[in-house]
Amino acid sequence: MTSARADRLVGRSVARREDPRLLAGRGRFVDDIELPGMLHAQFVRSTVAHGTITEIDLTGVRQVPGVVAAFTAADLELGDITARLGRPLSEFVPTAMPVLARDRVRHVGEPVAVVIARDPYLAEDGLEAARVTYAPLPPITCEEQALAPDAPRVHAEAAENTLVDVSLFATEGIDEIFDQAPCVVHVDVRTGRQNALPLETRGAVAQWDAREEQLVLHTCTQTPHQVRTVAARCLRLDERAVRVIVPDMGGGFGLKCVVGREEIAAAAAALRLGRPVKWIEDRKDALSASFLAREQHYTARAAFDADGRILGLDTDVVCDMGAYSCYPFTAGIEPLMASAEMPGVYKVPAYRVRGRAIATNKAPTAPYRGVSRPQYVMAMERLMERAARELRLDPVEIRRRNVITDFPYTGVNNITYDPGSYLESLDLCERALREAGWYDRQAAARAEGRHIGIGFSCFSERTGYGSAAFAQRKMEVVPGFDLAEVRMDTSGAVTVTTGTISHGQSHETTMAQIVADTLGLDFTKVKLHQGDTDRITYGWGTFASRSIAIGGSAVRLAAGRLGDKLRAIAAAEWGIPPEETELDRGRVRRRDDPDAALTYEHLADTAYLTSHLLPKDIDPGLTATAVFDVHNDGTFSNATHGVVVELHEGTGQVEILAYFCVEDCGVAVNPQVVEGQCRGGIAQGISGALFEQITYDAQGEPSATSFMDYKVPTAHEIPEVVIHHLETPCAFTETGAKGAGEGGTIGAPAAVLNAVNDALRPTGVELDNTPITPETVHRALTPRTPEQTP
What we know:
30 strands
């Protein structure tokens, strides 16, 4: 039951409630936690990419002043972290990730031992005294090495270094479709390895609470309940004996939605020593040894008819997942996502795909904002661009002829898409660019010999993954539902507890908007609690743009049930049916007499303090819980991005002159928050397109261990983004909202790459890989003599 309140909060850009605390420095992050007797952990990390450990000598470490202890895997005797899929070994090979390496190391930076000292600097001193001897093995550093015949194996059980090999779809007769098609185009797309780069690196503070007989682990994770589960199993504790608390968190972007090894080791050390232990990751370890992302290779072809309508899509996807599967998603998360969703916004009648995840001697990968979608969207958008050139069609027109327009639409990938605004967003984005004069400016610039290009990307963002969608991947651990509790006290104030966790998404604001509207309550009377495994039974955290779509739906359902109980108590006092009452501005009033109203404070007093007055069918107290899940294929936000770039001949620099985004995430609970998500995501997408990449030398040594070597943009490189909102309410969520967290990142790389290629059109050069470096652009713009031409 929604309140009768006219001045609704959902849909309004209410000021963020988090800002006063965070901007004034009153936030509390993991590194702010100081406890009596606290010790500090640092990790001895592998200096070789692949090898067997012949000796670990920590004798010198323990003699360093200030060092309290040093532990190896043999000392702590921890269980491994193993993620699994319910697939046959021909499709998926599970691999155990030890908390501390025991007999073999598989990437530079892998933790081998943990040093505990009185402060972090003394712990660093202890690291220098560690002596680890390795017998090096040949490292696997790229796809070609991994898949080569007789290649050394990263894991003995993974033949051909392949962790996942699935062929989800293969339309019958697809080869004949390609043989007979008037136009067939090919692309070979590669994307660079990246770091999600949250402002706050990973960290943990672990302590044993003797009174509660409970390990308390403060950590910056997007999935506190999953960390609790894994910690309990690795430490061989009852799950009740582990409490995970997430304080304020400075970003996650997917990097923190998997379970890392270091927080488990820090917890084990705290248990062993009986003292609190803190570990804070430094930026070097974050860049070289933390979970990375994005390194993927798409070999794709598409068949089109003479009018530019797609007839078939055939794709081979290879994802370099590094040394281990991440928990709980496994190495399958990238190839399975790409395989299932690559057709995207387009009507693809025939589809064949093979998706593989390979193991290499690099740091393992985790989901990163977008999860394969920036990559497969790039491949699809490059196919569209190439077909447009082959058929001499306008790039927007070929998209217009292929985007899904009739909903609900069930694709060749067996996914049903809920209603969206695919064509409308495309048309509006093109119109915005034309009305801003960019097509005229491009023509004038080309006449002057300048290189200005316009590029588009049109895509959907599958959000609101419920348990049914995750179950299709055959994960052993199946995320999906979320649970919420809404509780009112005798002052009429409301506390909301949810299984999602904010790391910058403004949940304290948006969840309060939902509850305030549902209960007809003053916005300031709602307080959110999140990130504490002892406060709520189970929650799946925040990733995949699920918080408002699923967590917000659970919150709205719980708030509605609490409202129903308030109405029932009031109706009992008046002796009328609850249907004759409604919620309004902190009161329950009678529909037949607007002047007759009972305040929430009065009803709360009855529920708690004079519960003997309640009818027998109404329990004391004002608490309601709800679980929400999406039982279909999820929800689909959509957007079109349009970008204008200029290429500078002398330097090869790519300058972004204008950026337009037309997005549709259903009902925008707080449009300002949605715009912030769009702009932040676009900045990360631009960065992946133009700047960020971690490469490895022949010995498996990473190229970038500091910001001196790892390029990230500043505010100067990120343009002003013009955002237009469309709204197609979702029928599958309680709020009408779809997810909005990842769309900016998904669309930006393809749009930037297409704009660069449009600028390069007079040269005849086409680029399909990211990041687009100044060197690459400079070579493309530099005329070659016949002797220089290959």
